[in-house]
Amino acid sequence: RLVAYTLRNEQPVFCVLSEDGKLMIEEITQKRNLLTGKVTSKVIRAAIPFTPPADKGLPQHLLLTDLADNAMAVWRDGTLVRFDLRDLSNPRVAETIDLVPEDHATLTSISFLLGKATIVSGDSLGRVRGWFRIKPDTPGVKTSDGAYLVLAHDLLASDPSASGTPVTAIAPATRSRLVAAGYADGAIRLFQMTTENLVAATNVPGGGTVSAL
């Protein structure tokens, strides 16, 4: 149903959600015999504890961090479940948050920024937001890894004219912390995530929803 992929220590790691709701993490390790040149592969698989909520069904998005230490299942209503994968012998749920808490709003786009640490979300209210994990010094954090996701950037303030127009596509840059967002009215905006600045804006000739960037 869904596949997320990353490279950890130059070895491929997959997070896979099957149609029957099973969530797996799979790491492929390869070793080369220095004498013969033969390459042998080994697959390490672990089941991630996951039961799709009866009222939500299967998630629409699956994310895997760059180090494959976290996976995230995300639903259209904004629900995000983060899984702690640091110990593949004991994967577990770390936390559940709501990226779009408003009852009438939905999550419309989601992606990682460069480095796969910051999540960029777009919603039906026209917001483009950045989320990342922090580890506070204060006691009382009850997640399995002592960290939790926080809303760090809200780019709607850079261009309030986008308010109310659904975000329909998100594309992060591959060499910087720029992110492009497309909208239902044909607008395209380029933001710098760290400074929250609007760098450029244009429109699709003739209008129409931006379906991909």
The biggest sheet, with number of strands, parallel, antiparallel or mixed sense and barrel status, is: 4 strands, antiparallel
Looking at the structure, what is the overall shape? Answer: globular
Number-wise, the strands total 16
Structural class: mainly beta
The strand order across the widest sheet is 1-2-3-4
The stretches of 5 or more residues where confidence is low (pLDDT under 50) are: none
Output the number of helix runs.
0
Tell me the strand percentage band: over 45%
Order of helices and strands: EEEEEEEEEEEEEEEE
Give the mean pLDDT: 92
Helix content: under 10%
| Radius of gyration, taken over Cα atoms and rounded to an integer in Å | 19 Å
Distance between the termini: 23 Å
Structure description:
The protein is mostly beta strands and about 210 residues long. It is built from no helices and 16 strands. The chain has strands spanning about 1-10, 10-15, 25-30, 40-50, 60-65, 70-75, 80-85, 90-100, 105-110, 120-125, 130-135, 150-155, 165-170, 180-185, 185-190, 195-205. The strands form four sheets. A four-stranded antiparallel β-sheet has the order 1-2-3-4, with no helix packed on it. A four-stranded antiparallel β-sheet has the order 5-6-7-8, with no helix packed on it. The two termini are about 25 Å apart.
Q: Summarize this, please?
A:
The chain is about 0% helix and about 50% strand.
